[in-house]
Amino acid sequence: MVDKDAHYLMNKGGVFYFTRHVPNDLQCHYARPRIVICLKTRSKNSALKASHSLASKLDDFWLKMRISQMEVPAAELLIKGQPTNTFTSFSPKLSDALEKYCRLKDIGRGDQFFKVARRNVGYVIQHLGDRPLDAYSSSDAASVCSNCVSLVYIDNNPQKC
Questions:
Q1: Distances 72 to 76, 84, 87 between C-alpha atoms, Å
Q2: Among 129, 124, 131, which Cα is nearest to 147's?
Q3: Does residue 130 share a domain with residue 61?
Q4: What does pTM read for this prediction?
Q5: Which of 50, 69, 88 is the last residue of a domain?
Q6: Which end of the chain, C or N, has fewer beta carbons within 10 A?
Q7: Does residue 93 sit in helix, strand or coil?
Q8: How far is the C-alpha of 28 from the C-alpha of 24, rounded, in Å?
Q9: Helix (H) and strand (E) counts for the chain?
């Protein structure tokens, strides 16, 4: 027999389970309309704490899912060609990361090391723009490689474009 003792709790065979209905607007993201998770405890107090924690995490996650499905207000005013996460990221920009990297690697490095680092990052910024680090993708890396690192042979000598 299955008892429902508390909010989002179910007791089956003396073991507590967290059970929660998936909201209708988010059911397309789930394989089943109900979430059931074994809490692996026979203690009602422990189960209550765990169920409150799980319910809170689910509520937060579902809110993020709902917000991500919304259209961006005033999207037509955003700079064209830049990914949306460029505007919503909390990551440092590539230029800031380069400066921090150079500060951290400053000990025992020659000028050539920093010159090469700045040149290579400069290629990326010139081609893709100075974005937050998490706004770059692997397809961006392929784009930079195909445009900036390809070799051109002049008089049988490879030279950079």
A1: 9, 9, 11
A2: 124
A3: no
A4: 0.46
A5: 69
A6: N
A7: strand
A8: 8
A9: 5, 6
Determine how many CB atoms are found less than 10 A away from the CB of residue 119: 10
Sign of CA dihedral 69, 70, 71, 72: negative
Percentage of the chain exceeding pLDDT 70: 76
Confirm if 39 and 11 have CB atoms less than 8 A apart: no
Q: Which two tokens stand for residue 120?
A: 């290579």
Measure Cα distances from 19 to 12, 54, 61 in Å.
Answer: 12, 10, 16
The candidate with the shortest Cα–Cα distance to 134, out of 82, 81, 96, 89, is 89
Q: In sequence order, what are the residues at sequence separation of 6 or more whose Cβ sits closer than 8 angstroms to the Cβ of residue 100?
A: 92
Q: What are the pLDDT digits (tens) for 35-83?
A: 999 999 999 999 999 999 999 999 999 998 888 777 766 766 666 655 5
The DSSP string of 112-161 is HHHHHHHHHHHHHHHHH-S-BGGG--HHHHHHHHHHHS-EEEETTEEEE-
